[in-house]
Write a structure and sequence with these properties.
It contains no helices and 11 strands. By secondary structure, it is an all-beta fold. Strands 2, 4, 5, 6, 9, 10 and 11 form a 7-stranded mixed β-sheet that branches.
């Protein structure tokens, strides 16, 4: 059974940082690219970042480029999203996605 579990969300002030984690199970994690997506209030879900299976290639949405960093630890079956210089518009539920499966999401709220 494929399972993705995100953690690390919370309330943070503008300009702050958070690190999200997503632990995967039920498939050979190291063989798949992994993604982060987000869905803000009243918005459609949007892609945020991708990291290829070996971790050497990453891509980001323009809205987060230079502020967010995606990484992975294949030994721990975990993908991370380091989010710096957070803005109120980053407020969303963040989901990891891979192997055609989705996690339950973790809420990130950026507010003073």
């Amino acid at each position: 059974q494929v399972q993705l579990v995100e953690t690390g969300g919370g309330l943070v002030q503008p300009g702050g940082s958070l690190r999200l984690s997503c632990v995967a199970s039920g498939f050979t994690f190291s063989e798949y690219p992994m993604y982060w997506h987000r869905q803000g209030p009243g918005k459609e879900r949007e892609w945020v970042a991708i990291i290829m299976d070996k971790g050497g290639i990453t891509h980001y949405a323009d809205s987060v480029k230079g502020r967010f960093t995606i990484s992975r630890d294949n030994a721990k079956n975990t993908v991370y999203l380091q989010m710096n210089s957070l803005k109120p518009e980053d407020t969303a539920v963040y989901y990891c996605n891979g192997h055609g499966s989705w996690g339950q999401g973790t809420q990130v709220t950026v507010s003073s």
